[in-house]
Amino acid sequence: MEDASLFDAAGIQLPRRATGHSDGHRPRLNVSRELELGKAAEHLACADLLLGGWTAYTTDQGLPYDVVVDVGNQLVRVQVKSTFCPKNPQPSNRSTPAYFFNIRRAGKGGKRTYGESEFDVYALVALDRRAVAYFAVIDLPTSCVVLRIPGAHYGFSTKQFRTFEGATFEHALDRLQPASTATG
């Protein structure tokens, strides 16, 4: 594997829920599928960062961020948002599907809105492709982010779409630097 990311493999589906242990006696845990997928996304983002040479840790429940990255002179707080697959918001329009991320709300049902300065970077994870895109919070002023499917063909309206390509942690970190040096 040369410069390809470990999580860029298209078309890989997450396994279905196990029905039990091979002996049939292990009971299934009653865990929220949304919580399981969110945890999977957090671990994928953390693994992507670790494999990229960063020192990264997942955090405990209750914090407004999911992963912390030690970049030497500071800790960068990363909020992970995920989606399982692309969606077509206007099927009657025959639009090309894309990944949609609601990034301003937290908690079950999105009951809580994130406050300012609760984290520094978003990690947007497409679980079906195991792809991760990183954006500095200052670069995402809206409540919904749309990412193009890698390799898909889109029309001329490119203003509202972002891509996974080039959305590296390094780029997001570079976007944070002016804010941190201005205060120091």
UniProtKB/TrEMBL annotation:
InterPro entries, A to Z: PD(D/E)XK_Endonuc (IPR021671), tRNA_endonuc-like_dom_sf (IPR011856)
Residue intervals of the PD(D/E)XK endonuclease domain: 37-151
Q: Which GO terms describe its molecular function?
A: nucleic acid binding
> Hey, what's the signal peptide range on this chain?
none
Q: What is this protein called?
A: PD(D/E)XK endonuclease domain-containing protein
